[in-house]
Amino acid sequence: MAKTPITVAHGDGIGPEIMDATLRIIMAAGAELELETIEIGEKMYAKGFTAGIAPEAWESLRRTKVFLKAPITTPQGGGFKSLNVTIRKALGLFANVRPCRSYAPFIATKHPIMDVVIVRENEEDLYAGIEHRQSEEIYQCLKLITRPGCEKIVRYAFEYARLNGRKKVTCFSKDNIMKLTDGLFHKVFDEIAAEYPDIENEHWIIDIGAAKMADTPEAFDVIVMANLYGDILSDVAAQIAGSVGLAGSSNIGAQCSMFEAIHGSAPRRAGQNVANPSGLFLGSILMLNHIGQNAAAEAAHNAWLKTIEDGIHTYDMFREGVSKEKVSTSGFADAVIARLGQTPGTLPVANYAGVKPMTIPQASPTKRQKIETVGVDMFCYLPDGTGQAMADKLAPLNGTGGLELKVISNRGQKIWPDGFGETFCVDQFRCRFQAPDGKSAVGGAAVAALIAKASEIGVDVTQIETQRTFDGANGFSQIQGACHPARRARRMDVWARTCAN
How many Å apart are CA 192 and CA 155, to the nearest integer? Predict the structure, then answer.
C-alpha cells in the first residue's frame, strides 16, 4: 500500500506524549503513513502568530489535506484566536463528528449501554467570532446561521447514520426563542429528514433534550446540532459515557479533514508520562477509516478494546477491584501494541471491513427571492435614559423618508409605547422605524435619509439593521412584549401630535 501523507502536530502540554503513544500504536498496527510535522500552539503564539500557526504550516495542511492534531493551549484574553476554530473555518471543516460510547463494566459510568454520536456544525453560529462593544454597558456577539450550512450538516448526519447502520437522527435547537436562526436549522432538518424515510427522525428543544440525554442517553443515536450546542453537549456526552479523556473526534470538509481528541492540553500533567492517550488514539482510528486504511484501524482499535478489558489502565481510568494495572502513557501504548491481533471478549468487536468514506454533502443552489426593505431598526445610545426619553429625542425624525417610529425596545423587550416601569434598561435602545402601515416597502434612500437626519440632530446611532422581507415574509424578529391595541393607539396619537408641534 502506498503511504498516505498526513500532517502531524504534537501540540502543547500533554500533546507530545499522547501523540507519540498514538503514532506508535497505529504504526505497529500497520498504518502506512508519511508524516509531515508542523509546529503550532504556544510557541507560535509567542512568535506573534495570533492564530497560533505559521504560513508554512498552512502549506502542509493544504498539501496533505489530512491533519492529526494533539491538543494545544490557546492564551486567554484579547488578541489571540482559537487555532481550532481558525483551522476548521479556513479549510471548510464543517462537520465535527464525536462518537461517545460507554465501556462498561471496565470504565466507570452510570450509562452502561450508551452509544451516541454527536454531529456538530463547525463553521458558523456564535463561533463566527463577530463581536462588538457598543456602549459602556452593551457587548454583542452575532449568531450567524445559514441555509447552506444547515443543509450540509443535517445531510451529513443522515448520511452518516445510513452508512454506519444507525437508526435515528435527532435535532436539538432552541427555535421556540430564536425563531429565525434556530428556526431555520429545525426547518432544514425537517426538509432533509423527509428524504430519508428509512431513518427515524425527531426534534427536541435543546434544554429538555440535553436533560434527557444526560439522564437517558440510550434514547438517542445520532444527534445533530448547531456549533455551540454541539460543543457543549459533546463534552457532556463524553463525560457521562465515561470520560472526556476517552473521546476522539473528526472534523470533515469537502477537501480537508482534521482528527483530534476533544480534551485540552492539560498543562499540569505535562511531562509526567501519566496522561491517557485514548482520546487522540480514537481520533486516529477515525482518521485511518477516513483515508481507507480500515485494516490498520480495526487491528489497533480491537487491541485497544482488549487492553481496556484486561484492566490495563492509566491513572484516570484506574479503579480498585476493576483495574489490574496502573500504567504510564508509554506503558499503555506498549500494552495495546502487545495485544495487536487480539479482540475483546465482552466489548463489541470493531469491524471496519467494507467501511467506505462518505460522500461529502453539498448545499443546494440558493433560491433567489424578491427582497424589499420595509423599515430599519436603529440602535441608539442614551445613558440613563427611558423609553419615553428616547422617543422624545427621536421625535424630530418622525416622517423622515416616509418612516415613523413604531416601537422602542431595550435588550429585546418593548419599553415604548406602553412599556412596564419594572423593565430594566441599559444604555442602548432599539428604535424601529417603518412605513405608516408597518409593511410597505420604503427603500434604501429612506433609510439613508433617516440616518443622516439622526446625525444632524445629535442622535448617537451605534448600529443599523434594515428590516427586509423575502417574497413577502418578514426577515426580522418581532419585538418582545404585548400591549392593548386601543391603549397603544391613544398613546401613539398623543405622541404624534407632540411631534407635529
Answer: 7
Q: Could you tell me what percentage of the chain is helix, strand and coil, using 3-state DSSP and rounding each to the nearest 5?
A: 35, 25, 40
Q: At what angle do helices 329-338 and 15-28 cross, to 10 degrees?
A: 10
- Length reported for the chain: 501
Residue 480 is predicted with a pLDDT of: 76
Q: How many Cα atoms within 13 Å fall on the side-chain side of residue 437?
A: 4
Whether the per-residue pLDDT at 491 is higher than 60: the answer is: no
Distance between CA 395 and CA 201 in Å, rounded?
A: 52
Using DSSP's 3-state secondary structure scheme, residue 490 falls into helix
Q: Return the closest-CA partner of residue 139 out of 126, 150, 124.
A: 126
Q: Cα separation of 217 and 215, whole Å?
A: 6
Q: How far apart are CA 362 and CA 35, in angstroms?
A: 30
Amino acid at 405: L
**Within a 13 Å sphere around the CA of 383, how many CA atoms are in the beta-carbon half?**
3
158 vs 199: CA distance, rounded Å: 8
Rounded to 5 degrees, what are φ and ψ at 143?
-100, 110
Does the pTM surpass 0.85? The reply is: yes
Distance between CA 357 and CA 297 in Å, rounded? 13
Instruction: Name residue 498's amino acid.
Output: T
Q: Cβ distance 450 to 406 under 8 Å?
A: no
- Give, in order, the Cα–Cα distances in Å from 376 to each of 177, 373, 411, 451: 22, 8, 17, 10
Q: How far apart are CA 272 and CA 274, in angstroms?
A: 5
φ/ψ of 318, rounded to 5, equals -65, 130
At a CB cut-off of 8 Å and minimum separation 6, what does 373 contact? 441, 442, 443, 444, 446, 447, 466, 467, 468
Q: Which of 57-71, 260-274, 355-369 has the lowest mean pLDDT?
A: 355-369
Q: How far is residue 220's CA from residue 196's CA, in Å, rounded to a whole number?
A: 17
Number of H helices, E strands in the chain: 14, 20
Task: Write down the mean pLDDT value for the chain.
Answer: 93
The 3-state secondary structure of 346-397, one letter per residue: CCCCCCCCCCCCCCCCCCCCCCCCCEEEEEEEEEEECCCCCHHHHHHHHHHH
Please, which pLDDT band fits residue 81 given cuts at 50, 70 and 90? confident
Could you give the 3-state DSSP secondary structure of residue 191? helix
Task: Identify the three-state secondary structure at position 470.
Answer: strand
CA end-to-end span of the chain, whole Å? 86
Annotate 117-138 with DSSP letters as a single string.
EEEEE-S-BGGG--EEE-SSS-
Over residues 459-479, the mean pLDDT reads 92
For residues 152 and 361, the answer to whether their CB atoms sit within 8 Å is yes
Q: Could you identify the residue written with the cell 445520532?
A: 222
